[in-house]
Amino acid sequence: MFFDSWHGVLRVLVVGTLAYLALVAWLRVTGKRTVSKWNAFDLIVTIALGSTLATVLLTQDVALVEGVVGMGLLIMLQYAITWTSVRVGWVQEAVKNAPTLLLRDGKPCVDAMRRQRVTHGELCAAVRASGQASLEGVDAVVLETDGTFSVITSGWNGSRDALSDVDGVARTRKGDGGN
C-alpha cells in the first residue's frame, strides 16, 4: 500500500520528467494561448492536459510515447480551434461566450445577472475588490469569458470600444435603465 517497488518509483521519476519536458516543449511550440484562461474551452484543454500528464505519470499501462502523442493531440486541437476562431466568426461564437454586462450606471442588470447565475453579493464583492465602496460609483461591471469581473469606474461616456463585444452594452444606452 505504501511501497510496491523501486521500479515503480524509478518509472515515475523517469517518465514524469520526460513527459513534463515533452509538455513544456509542446507548449513552447504552440504559444501562450494554449494554457490561457480566456474561456471554458481553454480551461477544459488545460485540465485535460493535466489529466493526461497524471495518467502517463501514474499508469503503467500507458506508454510515454502514447501520453506525449495524447498531449500533442490536445494541444494541436486547441491550436486549430483558436487559429480558426480568430479567422472564422461562427467558430469563435461556437467556442467562446461573449462577456456580459452585469451593472450599468450603478444599477444591477437583474436579468443578465440571473442568466449568468451571479448573485448580488458576488457583484458587490467584485465592486469592493476594485476599491469601490458603492455600486453607484461604478459605471459598469462586466462578467468576462473566463468568469472574472471587470469593474469600470470611468470613461463610460467615451467611445466604449473596449465594450464592443460585451453582451448587453448595445441594448443599454444611457438613461434606459439597463435591465
Automatic annotation (TrEMBL):
Q: Which InterPro entries match?
A: DUF421 (IPR007353), UPF0702_alpha/beta_dom_sf (IPR023090), YetF_N (IPR048454)
Pinpoint the YetF-like N-terminal transmembrane domain residues. Answer: 17-83
- All residue ranges annotated as the YetF C-terminal domain in the record: 89-156
Q: Keywords for this entry?
A: Cell membrane, Membrane, Transmembrane, Transmembrane helix
Subcellular locations according to the entry = Cell membrane
Question: Where exactly are the transmembrane stretches of this chain?
Answer: 6-27, 39-58, 64-86
Domain of life (superkingdom) = Bacteria
Membrane topology term reads: Multi-pass membrane protein
One Gene Ontology cellular component annotation? plasma membrane
Pfam families hit by this protein: DUF421, YetF_N
Q: Which family does it belong to?
A: Belongs to the UPF0702 family.
This chain's protein is named DUF421 domain-containing protein
- Please tell me the species this chain comes from: Luteimonas viscosa
